[in-house]
Amino acid sequence: MKLLTTTFAALLCSASIAGACEITLRSSDTHPDGYPTVEGVKAMAAEVQEKTGGRICIEVFPSSQLGEEKDTIEQTQFGVIDMVRASFGSFNDIVPVTQTLSLPYLFTSPEHQHAVLDGPIGAEIAEDFAERDLIALAYYDGGARSFYNSQKPIRTVDDLKGMKFRVMQNDVFVDMMAALGANATPMPYGEVYSSIQTGVIDGAENNYPSYDSSGHAEVAKYFTLDQHLMVPELVAVSKASWEKLTPEDQEIMRTAARNSATLQRRLWADQEKASEEKVIAAGAEIVKDVDKTAFIEAMAPVYAKYVTTPEAQDLVKRVQETR
């Protein structure tokens, strides 16, 4: 009886707080409930609600309930949706600087990426988003993509030569594989397992959680931790919704967003660790002694093709110099 009474009281308290919301912001995410990005925005929502005494509530809609990333980004620009969590890759056509920051081997580690985005460069990028009616609040971790295959351990660029890897249908990815001496084979994600199993391709590339959840570790046991691609995630709020808030409430939102980024990055690291342990237990071989410098140097022709303006060249230089 005491437990029921306590639960009922908690429900009444929750309902009371929800009823007190003067402003309710709708936030979209394509990932399922429980995913690190979703939990990050939920944590931000809880802090904002607490610090505003329940006046501002953020309602999180996971699992693409409000649409896919590109659609929800556009709706957020127009103020139809208040907030969105999306990958930098989905902003490429809207905020050009995001394409530069999605280049292979630009970030040498998750820590390097965090240092860049949490510093002056991250602040500059936020200004570019503001020009497109989006207020950047927090940069989340989207993980690092690495190569995995069914044939052999890959430690050097030479080990990749002639091998066939599935990549997303993306010109930069295709050119990246060519620069490494491998053959890019764009195909739907759902065909990768059987294609590795039957020898149509030798391998693919993705992060630990995807390598685990897709079952690819069963047919491609060699995972090379080269971390060739680290595409940031962004939490942004519509400029129209943002301008309705007082400066004090805006600061509460910014602080809560920064705190949520710290949590989200930790949750992502935990998820990666759990997936790594799982695939190792299942027999995967994780190759960590990689000649990463050689991989980075092999990207010269890719950068020459895609980093053509003085502004982009300066940005790449400053990112590489960030410690």
From TrEMBL:
It comes from the Bacteria. CDD domains: PBP2_TRAP_SBP_like_3. One of its GO terms (molecular function) is carbohydrate binding. Pfam families: DctP. Keywords: Periplasm, Receptor, Signal. Residues 1-20 form the signal peptide. GO terms for cellular component: outer membrane-bounded periplasmic space. One of its GO terms (biological process) is transmembrane transport. It is found in: Periplasm. PROSITE patterns: PROKAR_LIPOPROTEIN. This is Tripartite ATP-independent transporter solute receptor, DctP family. The lineage of its organism: Bacteria, Pseudomonadati, Pseudomonadota, Alphaproteobacteria, Rhodobacterales.
